[in-house]
Amino acid sequence: MAARSASPAPAAAQRRSRLTPEREREIYGAVLDLVREDGYEALTMDAVASRTKSSKATLYRQWENKPNLVACALRADQRVTLADIDTGTLAGDLHEMRRRVGCDVDRDTELLSGLGHAMQRDTELERTVRAVLIEPELQSLDGLLRRAVVRGEVAEGNPALEFVPHLMLGAMVAQKIIDGREADPAYLERYVDAVVLPALLTG
User: Fold this and answer.
1) Which helix (H) or strand (E) holds 165?
2) Which residues form a coiled coil (predicted)?
3) Under the phi-then-psi rule, with left for phi > 0, alpha for psi from -120 to 50, and beta for the rest, what region is 39?
């Protein structure tokens, strides 16, 4: 399995914040509320400053630009992470992963869908969200799969390793399109057992 090199997080995400955690949460909440209300394209730093009674100078000093502010707000709001999953077996890890994803799959669907469309048109937003939000989770998934290889559960050269993120995301997208409903925990459990684990354990 090829190692995935994470994109460096934007400088503002790495800089030590001068704001209190409570103030950061307030700003992040306002940012996501504004995106829900008017969409990403209509969001402005002026609107965030007005909603949070902040100065634009403070916002730019902390986050540099709108894409980074939105990406950091999404990261702070993220309830599901793969970073600490390590049950000791591949099956256990994948089922813990699908449990976490399944519990959060219908949360803020409209917000995330709208941002997904915006990312297709805004390369800076796409790059920043990938660096701040997507790449850390892909790194965690790579680590999960690498441990399965080290334990001898999965062959080093199994070609399915490359496609595990696509398999998991594809399950959720396909269920919505084909069956007209979100991928619930029972569906994801059957999918992991019928598709993902066989692909990894027999390759």
Assistant:
1) helix 164-174
2) none
3) left
Per-residue model confidence (pLDDT) at position 104: 60
Q: Of the CATH numbers 1.10.3720.10, 1.10.357.10, 1.20.950.20, 1.10.10.10, which one belongs to the domain with range 11-76?
A: 1.10.357.10
Task: Please give the Cα distance from 138 to 13 (Å, whole number).
Answer: 18
The first and second tokens of residue 63, run together, are: 């986050």
In terms of pTM, does the model score above 0.85?
A: no
Q: What's the pLDDT score for residue 7?
A: 46
Mean pLDDT by 10 residues, the chain (203 residues): 48 58 95 91 95 95 95 86 93 92 64 83 93 92 96 96 92 83 86 96 78
Residue 95 near residue 103 (C-beta atoms within 8 A): no
Instruction: Report H helices in 66-134.
Output: 66-77, 90-104, 109-121, 123-129
User: Tokens 């920043």 label which residue?
Assistant: 128
Angle between helices 45-52 and 56-63 (to 10 degrees): 110
Pair 89, 32: CB distance under 8 Å: no
pLDDT at 38: 87
CATH code for the domain defined by 83-202: 1.10.357.10
